Amino acid sequence: MDRNRKILLSILLFLAFSIIIALIDIGTKETKPHKGISTFRVMQTGPGIGVVNIEGEIRTDSMAGFRGHLGSDAIIEQLSDLEANPNIRAIVVRINSPGGSVAASQEIYEKIMTIRKKNIPVFASMADIAASGGYYVASACNKIFANSGTLTGSIGVIMLAPDIQKFLEKFGISMNVIKSGRHKDIFSSVRGIDPQERRMLQEMVDSIYQKFLKDVAVGRNMSISDIEPVADGRILTGEAALRHQLIDEIGTFNDTLLAAKREVDLPENAAVYRQRMSSIEQLLMSIKSGFRFTSKFKSSELLKTENYILQ
């Protein structure tokens, strides 16, 4: 009993400490400027390359920061800062993400396409994984680099909803539902989906999937028919993605930086602008690393229960 109490006390203390740090962090961020180069750090000065990191699940919500990575709004703000800075000649988007929500991925995709139209080259550098929504974002870039062992592709859409109706019936549990329309509880976990609802949902998935295919084709300057053979949800290594023209080159993050510099006629020692991380943010990341019990790429990341997920 004493041992359990100690464990519970330790957990409560950790949660309290994390909340305090998070609140301080929010206050610190509110005093920071949201626009301009002051939100980025650089060892050199002058013309250079801007770097934006996309880490973890791609979401629009403001709580993304508490999970150790940025939401799409913050990522788009960083891209806008770099876009507006006259010193930035090209941008490298470093992606390490298994995917995420449709809307968040589409918004980042559209922002990158807008930057491209202003003749600012955007390069994608894939890390461990850049799949589904992660690939959606990468496809907007002028060129995509990946490691040979990077996991990418997974072009497709999935909708998941648990059905625990039989489980509840086994224990004699029922749910009272009062709704304004027949389909208002279409994704309820306490009842199944009827044939009409299944057709409705399948039409939605198919529509989103076609938009996914079209956007990838536009970003990659390919035809949809060329992409469809591998756009069945399959995961590809960097080597396989190169064979199917889903990426442009096998290379590291540094290789991507050098290629971006060459693209805009900058020397190899040109400035590299990155987001500046405060000491509190560094502490939060250290805490997160210390309490991480699973690897970055885990099967649960591919099984998030959401209305729409790109996987």
Q: How many structural units, i.e. domains? A: 1
Number of strands: 11
Report how far apart the termini are. 44 Å
CATH fold topology: 2-enoyl-CoA Hydratase, Chain A, domain 1
Name of the level-1 CATH class: Alpha Beta
Principal-axis shape: globular
- In percent, how helical is the residue content? 40-55%
**Runs with pLDDT <50, length 5+?**
26-39, 288-309
CATH homologous superfamily assignment? 2-enoyl-CoA Hydratase, Chain A, domain 1
Radius of gyration of CA atoms, rounded to a whole number: 22 Å
How big a fraction of the residues is strand? Answer: 15-25%
* Major beta sheet summary: 9 strands, mixed
Count of alpha/pi helices: 10
Question: Which structural class should the secondary elements be placed in?
Answer: alpha/beta
Mean pLDDT across all amino acids: 81
Would you list the SSEs in sequence order as H and E?
HEEHEHEHEEEHHHEHEHEHE
CATH architecture: Alpha-Beta Complex
Structure notes:
Helix 1 packs antiparallel against helix 10 (279-290) and helix 2 (72-84) packs parallel to helix 3. Mean pLDDT is 81; it is low at 26-39 and 288-309. This protein is an alpha/beta fold. Strand 2, helix 2 (72-84) and strand 3 (88-97) form a beta-alpha-beta unit. 41% of the residues lie in helices and 16% in strands. The protein is globular. The strands form 2 sheets. Strands 1, 2, 3, 4, 5, 6, 8, 9 and 10 form a 9-stranded mixed beta sheet that branches. Strands 7-11 form a two-stranded antiparallel sheet. It has 10 helices and 11 strands. The protein has one domain (34-310): 2-enoyl-CoA Hydratase, Chain A, domain 1.
